[in-house]
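# step 3/5: fold
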Amino acid sequence: AGVKRKGGASLGCACAMTDARLIFHPFFSVEIHDDRVVVRRAPDQASLHLLTHDGTVRMELLPPPQPSPPLSALSAWACLGTLTFGAVRYLVVVTECLYTGDIVKRPVF
């Protein structure tokens, strides 16, 4: 929808701010923690982790491939998108909540 929130940053989804939580309607809720951000996707509430890096306020989410690959095949598409909030950039990566195995971590360049 490209809805803008305060600061003029364009977001890929409609978004509302409540305390330390960004809610992306209708498919995503984003929980902001000290060391990570967790994205939960409705209706299955599968989690994505976002890792902190420098950046500006922005949200980008790319659609996952269909069918979803196993964890070992994630290297080709591990970066589903980025969320930047304040001076912190978060990289969207798949966690074991979606797949078995370790959390996939990728730096933001």
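# step 4/5: annotate
The beta strands are 14-18, 21-25, 28-32, 37-41, 46-54, 58-61, 81-85, 88-94.
# step 5/5: archive (pending)
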